[in-house]
Amino acid sequence: MAAVSDLGGAVVSRQSRRWEGFGFLAPLLLFALIVFDIPLLIVVFWSFSDPVTGFPSLGTYAAFVESGSYARIIWRTFLIASEVTIATALIGYPLAYWISRLEQRSQFIAIGLVTMTFWVSILVRTYAWIVILGNGGIVNRWLQAAGITSRPVEFLYNEGGVAVGMINVLLPFLVLPLYAAMRSVDPRLIHVAETLGASRLQIFWRVFFPLTAAALGASMVLVFILSLGFYITPAILGGGRVPLIANMMDLLINKFARWEMAAVNSVVLLIVTLAFYGLYQRLREKAA
User: Fold this and answer.
1) pLDDT of 7 over the 50 cut
2) What letter does residue 255 receive in the DSSP assignment?
3) Which of 47, 248, 274, 287 gives 20 to 30 Å between its CA and that of 67?
4) Residue 56 phi/psi, 5° resolution?
5) Phi, psi dihedral angles at 49 (to 5 degrees)
6) What Å distances lie between residue 99 and 94, 96, 108, 113, 194, CA to CA?
7) Is residue 58 part of a domain?
8) Global model pTM greater than 0.70
9) Is there a contact between 176 and 112 (Cβ–Cβ < 8 Å)?
10) What whole-number distance in Å separates Cα of residue 93 and Cα of residue 98?
11) Tell me, what's the pLDDT at 275?
Protein backbone atom coordinates (compact mmCIF):
# COMPACT_ATOMS: atom_id res chain seq x y z
CA MET A 1 0.00 0.00 0.00
CA ALA A 2 2.85 2.34 0.81
CA ALA A 3 4.40 1.66 -2.60
CA VAL A 4 1.09 2.41 -4.33
CA SER A 5 0.68 5.68 -2.44
CA ASP A 6 4.26 6.66 -3.27
CA LEU A 7 3.61 5.92 -6.96
CA GLY A 8 0.40 7.96 -6.89
CA GLY A 9 2.21 10.83 -5.22
CA ALA A 10 4.93 10.72 -7.90
CA VAL A 11 2.30 10.85 -10.66
CA VAL A 12 0.57 13.82 -9.01
CA SER A 13 3.91 15.53 -8.58
CA ARG A 14 4.72 15.11 -12.29
CA GLN A 15 1.31 16.45 -13.30
CA SER A 16 1.71 19.46 -11.04
CA ARG A 17 5.13 20.16 -12.56
CA ARG A 18 3.63 20.00 -16.04
CA TRP A 19 0.94 22.52 -15.06
CA GLU A 20 3.59 24.75 -13.54
CA GLY A 21 5.53 24.60 -16.81
CA PHE A 22 2.35 25.42 -18.71
CA GLY A 23 1.90 28.44 -16.47
CA PHE A 24 5.25 29.78 -17.65
CA LEU A 25 4.38 29.11 -21.32
CA ALA A 26 0.81 30.46 -21.17
CA PRO A 27 1.77 34.16 -21.61
CA LEU A 28 3.88 33.29 -24.66
CA LEU A 29 1.09 31.17 -26.16
CA LEU A 30 -1.41 33.96 -25.52
CA PHE A 31 0.92 36.49 -27.16
CA ALA A 32 1.34 34.27 -30.24
CA LEU A 33 -2.42 33.76 -30.43
CA ILE A 34 -3.21 37.49 -30.28
CA VAL A 35 -0.37 38.75 -32.49
CA PHE A 36 -0.14 35.98 -35.12
CA ASP A 37 -3.09 33.59 -35.15
CA ILE A 38 -6.06 35.93 -34.71
CA PRO A 39 -4.92 38.35 -37.48
CA LEU A 40 -4.51 35.39 -39.85
CA LEU A 41 -8.00 34.15 -39.01
CA ILE A 42 -9.38 37.65 -39.64
CA VAL A 43 -7.68 37.74 -43.05
CA VAL A 44 -9.15 34.33 -43.93
CA PHE A 45 -12.59 35.56 -42.81
CA TRP A 46 -12.29 38.67 -45.01
CA SER A 47 -11.34 36.56 -48.01
CA PHE A 48 -14.69 34.73 -47.76
CA SER A 49 -16.75 37.92 -47.17
CA ASP A 50 -18.87 39.65 -49.77
CA PRO A 51 -17.56 43.22 -50.21
CA VAL A 52 -21.12 44.63 -50.32
CA THR A 53 -23.17 42.60 -47.87
CA GLY A 54 -20.37 41.26 -45.67
CA PHE A 55 -21.92 37.78 -45.68
CA PRO A 56 -19.85 34.67 -46.47
CA SER A 57 -19.27 34.32 -50.19
CA LEU A 58 -16.87 32.88 -52.75
CA GLY A 59 -17.37 35.83 -55.08
CA THR A 60 -14.00 37.39 -54.34
CA TYR A 61 -12.23 34.10 -55.07
CA ALA A 62 -14.17 33.85 -58.34
CA ALA A 63 -13.13 37.39 -59.28
CA PHE A 64 -9.53 36.50 -58.39
CA VAL A 65 -9.57 33.46 -60.69
CA GLU A 66 -11.30 35.30 -63.55
CA SER A 67 -9.00 38.32 -63.43
CA GLY A 68 -5.86 37.97 -65.52
CA SER A 69 -3.98 40.83 -63.86
CA TYR A 70 -3.62 39.05 -60.53
CA ALA A 71 -2.43 35.88 -62.26
CA ARG A 72 0.21 37.85 -64.20
CA ILE A 73 1.56 39.50 -61.06
CA ILE A 74 1.62 36.20 -59.18
CA TRP A 75 3.38 34.52 -62.12
CA ARG A 76 5.94 37.35 -62.24
CA THR A 77 6.51 36.98 -58.50
CA PHE A 78 7.16 33.24 -58.79
CA LEU A 79 9.36 33.73 -61.84
CA ILE A 80 11.54 36.38 -60.20
CA ALA A 81 11.66 34.34 -56.98
CA SER A 82 12.86 31.30 -58.95
CA GLU A 83 15.49 33.33 -60.81
CA VAL A 84 16.72 34.89 -57.56
CA THR A 85 16.84 31.47 -55.86
CA ILE A 86 18.88 29.89 -58.67
CA ALA A 87 21.26 32.86 -58.90
CA THR A 88 21.70 32.92 -55.13
CA ALA A 89 22.55 29.20 -55.15
CA LEU A 90 25.06 29.62 -57.99
CA ILE A 91 26.80 32.42 -56.09
CA GLY A 92 26.30 31.19 -52.54
CA TYR A 93 27.42 27.57 -52.86
CA PRO A 94 30.93 28.37 -54.20
CA LEU A 95 31.21 31.15 -51.61
CA ALA A 96 30.27 28.84 -48.73
CA TYR A 97 32.61 26.15 -50.08
CA TRP A 98 35.49 28.63 -50.33
CA ILE A 99 34.90 29.84 -46.77
CA SER A 100 34.79 26.26 -45.43
CA ARG A 101 38.21 25.56 -47.02
CA LEU A 102 39.91 28.52 -45.35
CA GLU A 103 41.95 28.41 -42.17
CA GLN A 104 40.08 28.77 -38.89
CA ARG A 105 40.91 32.44 -38.38
CA SER A 106 40.11 33.32 -41.99
CA GLN A 107 36.80 31.48 -41.72
CA PHE A 108 35.89 33.54 -38.67
CA ILE A 109 36.64 36.77 -40.54
CA ALA A 110 34.73 35.71 -43.68
CA ILE A 111 31.66 34.59 -41.73
CA GLY A 112 31.82 37.85 -39.77
CA LEU A 113 31.73 39.82 -43.02
CA VAL A 114 28.71 37.82 -44.22
CA THR A 115 26.92 38.26 -40.90
CA MET A 116 27.58 42.01 -40.85
CA THR A 117 25.11 42.45 -43.71
CA PHE A 118 22.29 41.78 -41.21
CA TRP A 119 23.34 44.91 -39.31
CA VAL A 120 22.64 47.19 -42.29
CA SER A 121 19.07 48.22 -43.06
CA ILE A 122 17.53 46.67 -46.18
CA LEU A 123 16.41 50.17 -47.17
CA VAL A 124 19.98 51.48 -47.02
CA ARG A 125 21.34 48.52 -48.97
CA THR A 126 18.64 48.95 -51.60
CA TYR A 127 19.37 52.64 -52.11
CA ALA A 128 23.08 51.79 -52.32
CA TRP A 129 22.37 49.90 -55.54
CA ILE A 130 20.94 53.10 -57.05
CA VAL A 131 24.27 54.80 -56.30
CA ILE A 132 26.10 51.90 -57.96
CA LEU A 133 23.86 50.96 -60.90
CA GLY A 134 21.75 54.09 -61.48
CA ASN A 135 21.91 56.12 -64.70
CA GLY A 136 24.32 58.48 -62.99
CA GLY A 137 25.84 55.79 -60.81
CA ILE A 138 29.40 54.55 -60.46
CA VAL A 139 29.14 51.74 -63.04
CA ASN A 140 27.53 53.88 -65.75
CA ARG A 141 29.98 56.72 -65.25
CA TRP A 142 32.88 54.28 -65.54
CA LEU A 143 31.43 52.70 -68.71
CA GLN A 144 30.97 56.09 -70.35
CA ALA A 145 34.40 57.33 -69.25
CA ALA A 146 36.00 54.17 -70.71
CA GLY A 147 34.17 54.71 -73.98
CA ILE A 148 32.34 51.39 -73.74
CA THR A 149 28.90 53.04 -73.88
CA SER A 150 27.76 56.43 -75.11
CA ARG A 151 24.66 56.60 -72.93
CA PRO A 152 23.70 55.17 -69.53
CA VAL A 153 22.73 51.52 -69.41
CA GLU A 154 19.43 50.92 -67.62
CA PHE A 155 20.45 48.39 -64.98
CA LEU A 156 17.62 49.43 -62.67
CA TYR A 157 13.85 49.89 -62.81
CA ASN A 158 13.36 46.49 -64.42
CA GLU A 159 13.25 42.85 -63.34
CA GLY A 160 17.04 42.57 -63.52
CA GLY A 161 17.55 45.43 -61.08
CA VAL A 162 14.98 43.96 -58.68
CA ALA A 163 16.71 40.56 -58.88
CA VAL A 164 20.12 42.09 -58.09
CA GLY A 165 18.79 43.80 -54.97
CA MET A 166 17.00 40.66 -53.78
CA ILE A 167 20.08 38.48 -54.30
CA ASN A 168 22.14 40.91 -52.24
CA VAL A 169 19.67 40.69 -49.35
CA LEU A 170 19.07 36.92 -49.49
CA LEU A 171 22.60 35.65 -50.09
CA PRO A 172 23.50 35.34 -46.36
CA PHE A 173 20.39 33.21 -45.77
CA LEU A 174 21.87 30.61 -48.12
CA VAL A 175 25.57 30.94 -47.28
CA LEU A 176 25.31 30.54 -43.50
CA PRO A 177 23.27 27.26 -43.42
CA LEU A 178 25.41 25.84 -46.23
CA TYR A 179 28.61 26.73 -44.41
CA ALA A 180 27.34 24.95 -41.28
CA ALA A 181 26.46 21.85 -43.34
CA MET A 182 29.85 21.85 -45.04
CA ARG A 183 31.64 22.14 -41.71
CA SER A 184 29.74 19.08 -40.45
CA VAL A 185 31.03 16.84 -43.25
CA ASP A 186 33.34 14.22 -41.75
CA PRO A 187 36.87 14.97 -43.06
CA ARG A 188 37.75 11.28 -42.78
CA LEU A 189 35.50 10.61 -45.79
CA ILE A 190 37.59 13.01 -47.84
CA HIS A 191 40.80 11.38 -46.66
CA VAL A 192 39.49 7.90 -47.52
CA ALA A 193 38.57 9.06 -51.04
CA GLU A 194 42.05 10.54 -51.46
CA THR A 195 43.72 7.31 -50.38
CA LEU A 196 41.61 5.41 -52.92
CA GLY A 197 43.05 7.57 -55.69
CA ALA A 198 40.09 9.87 -56.38
CA SER A 199 40.85 13.28 -57.88
CA ARG A 200 39.69 16.51 -56.26
CA LEU A 201 36.88 16.84 -58.78
CA GLN A 202 35.73 13.27 -58.14
CA ILE A 203 35.86 13.82 -54.39
CA PHE A 204 33.72 16.93 -54.71
CA TRP A 205 31.03 15.46 -56.97
CA ARG A 206 30.90 11.92 -55.51
CA VAL A 207 31.50 12.60 -51.81
CA PHE A 208 31.24 16.24 -50.77
CA PHE A 209 28.37 17.52 -52.92
CA PRO A 210 25.96 14.61 -52.19
CA LEU A 211 26.52 15.16 -48.46
CA THR A 212 25.60 18.86 -48.77
CA ALA A 213 22.90 18.60 -51.47
CA ALA A 214 20.06 18.35 -48.94
CA ALA A 215 21.31 21.46 -47.13
CA LEU A 216 21.55 23.26 -50.46
CA GLY A 217 17.98 22.29 -51.34
CA ALA A 218 16.66 23.40 -47.93
CA SER A 219 18.50 26.73 -48.18
CA MET A 220 17.14 27.31 -51.70
CA VAL A 221 13.58 26.67 -50.52
CA LEU A 222 14.14 29.11 -47.65
CA VAL A 223 15.40 31.77 -50.06
CA PHE A 224 12.43 31.16 -52.35
CA ILE A 225 9.96 31.57 -49.48
CA LEU A 226 11.59 34.80 -48.34
CA SER A 227 11.66 36.22 -51.86
CA LEU A 228 7.90 35.78 -52.28
CA GLY A 229 7.13 38.50 -49.74
CA PHE A 230 9.61 41.19 -50.82
CA TYR A 231 8.19 44.71 -50.84
CA ILE A 232 10.86 47.41 -50.37
CA THR A 233 13.34 46.17 -53.00
CA PRO A 234 10.80 45.82 -55.86
CA ALA A 235 9.23 49.17 -54.93
CA ILE A 236 12.56 51.05 -55.08
CA LEU A 237 14.67 49.19 -57.64
CA GLY A 238 11.65 48.37 -59.79
CA GLY A 239 10.52 51.99 -59.92
CA GLY A 240 6.87 50.91 -59.89
CA ARG A 241 7.36 48.94 -63.12
CA VAL A 242 7.86 45.52 -61.50
CA PRO A 243 4.99 45.02 -59.02
CA LEU A 244 5.09 41.78 -57.06
CA ILE A 245 2.48 40.24 -54.75
CA ALA A 246 3.39 42.42 -51.78
CA ASN A 247 3.28 45.61 -53.86
CA MET A 248 -0.08 44.57 -55.34
CA MET A 249 -1.55 44.00 -51.86
CA ASP A 250 -0.28 47.42 -50.78
CA LEU A 251 -2.20 49.02 -53.68
CA LEU A 252 -5.33 46.98 -52.96
CA ILE A 253 -5.33 48.06 -49.31
CA ASN A 254 -4.06 51.65 -49.32
CA LYS A 255 -5.18 52.95 -52.74
CA PHE A 256 -8.22 50.98 -53.90
CA ALA A 257 -9.51 49.87 -50.44
CA ARG A 258 -10.28 46.38 -51.73
CA TRP A 259 -9.62 44.54 -48.49
CA GLU A 260 -11.38 41.34 -49.52
CA MET A 261 -9.26 40.95 -52.67
CA ALA A 262 -6.10 41.70 -50.71
CA ALA A 263 -7.16 39.02 -48.23
CA VAL A 264 -7.61 36.49 -51.07
CA ASN A 265 -4.10 37.24 -52.33
CA SER A 266 -2.79 36.87 -48.79
CA VAL A 267 -4.47 33.49 -48.37
CA VAL A 268 -3.08 32.24 -51.70
CA LEU A 269 0.42 33.41 -50.73
CA LEU A 270 0.03 31.80 -47.29
CA ILE A 271 -0.98 28.43 -48.76
CA VAL A 272 1.95 28.44 -51.18
CA THR A 273 4.36 29.47 -48.44
CA LEU A 274 3.13 26.70 -46.11
CA ALA A 275 3.57 24.14 -48.89
CA PHE A 276 7.15 25.21 -49.51
CA TYR A 277 7.78 25.40 -45.78
CA GLY A 278 6.78 21.74 -45.48
CA LEU A 279 9.25 20.94 -48.26
CA TYR A 280 11.90 22.98 -46.44
CA GLN A 281 11.37 21.02 -43.21
CA ARG A 282 11.72 17.69 -45.02
CA LEU A 283 14.93 18.76 -46.72
CA ARG A 284 16.30 20.12 -43.46
CA GLU A 285 15.62 16.79 -41.74
CA LYS A 286 17.55 15.03 -44.49
CA ALA A 287 20.41 17.51 -44.16
CA ALA A 288 20.56 16.90 -40.41
Assistant:
1) no
2) T
3) 274
4) -60, 135
5) -100, 140
6) 9, 5, 9, 11, 21
7) no
8) yes
9) no
10) 9
11) 85
